[in-house]
Amino acid sequence: MRKFIFKTLLFTVPFLTLYIITSLFYSTKETPDLLRIGYIPNVSSDYRKVFDFNKPKKFELLSKSSNRKFKILTIGDSFSEQGGIGYKNILANDFSVLHVNRFISDNQIQTLIDLTNGDFFEKYKIDYIVLQNVERYIIDNSQNIDFNDKMTTHELDSLVSDFQPKEEVFKYDFFSAATLKFPISSAKFFLKKNYLSNKEVYNVQLNTTSLFSNNSDKLLFFYQDLDKTKKNNLVENSNNLNQVLNTISTKLKQKNIKLIVLPSPDKYDMYYDYIVDKKNFTKPVFFENFRKLKKDYIYIDSKEILSEQLNIQKDIYFFDDTHWSPISAKIIAYEIKKVIK
């Protein structure tokens, strides 16, 4: 019996130790996303306490609003889904804002075309549209566009009524792969430089500790930021994107609507110049290529705007997340206000 207990302890004690490490430092929340998907230890547990995440939402959702007249309509991806801390909520302090739910706009560029070709803007009075798209997917979303596709308000209502929201639950189970993988990944975080963690999140060394308020010299970013760089760097792809946006803007002008285009920089692009060893990291040049093109719409060059703040303000992007912080959201909202006012 004693031998059995001893042999059992040889297995259970190490596993229990791994479980304790994982339960203490593994983040199971939706945000910060990079810690969760990259199996990165949450060693700066107080980091987010400086941000106020409890601001009331002042914008309206397309799926719930009964109003038909708004100054601004916003349509985008997760950078437009930051709730009370997002740029659209700040805009709602000064303007009426209607936001197109993300489940409606899987590809926001195509969805805007569909709405423009349908009867949406006959039934909704909109003055400005903010079309936001994160850098890594903006070229993908501009390809294989169907300019003849349309969505009527009847189809839109059916889509909304049929939608069944599913609350994504991120949890950690005792008997799971995370118990084994996370402690190993955590050790790499402290001992290794410039590596891909859990095949999803890069952890690279920076040449400064001044970019984030936790004084880290590490940059965490989503692997697709790098993977999409080759495609996004091609000038011809930027030209095609610009032509698509110019065409959309022309269609909207016929309805007396002004288009504001807001590409959101990848975190990798935002902080690229601060990476120590760039040998295996291609320089992103999408914004450099794109800003040279002739545009028939209002363009918010968010990379240029936010880059000017990097040496002045910490946490332009969250240290532990793919998205820009409330600090950047406020800066971007101010730039949009300027072009409207």
From TrEMBL:
Q: Where, if anywhere, are coiled coils annotated?
A: none
Task: Determine if Transmembrane is one of this entry's keywords.
Answer: no
- A Pfam family for this UniProt protein? ALGX
Which keywords fit this entry according to its UniProt record? Alginate biosynthesis, Periplasm, Signal, Transferase
Can the keyword Signal be found in this entry's annotation?
Answer: yes
InterPro entries recorded:
ALGX/ALGJ_SGNH-like (IPR031811)
Its primary localisation, in coarse terms, equals: periplasm
Superkingdom in the source lineage: Bacteria
Could you tell me one molecular function GO term of this UniProt entry?
transferase activity
In this chain the AlgX/AlgJ SGNH hydrolase-like domain maps to: 221-340
Pathway(s) per entry:
Glycan biosynthesis; alginate biosynthesis
According to its UniProt entry, the protein's GO biological process terms are: alginic acid biosynthetic process
The GO cellular component terms are: periplasmic space
Annotated protein name in UniProt: AlgX/AlgJ SGNH hydrolase-like domain-containing protein
Q: Please name the source species.
A: Flavobacterium pectinovorum
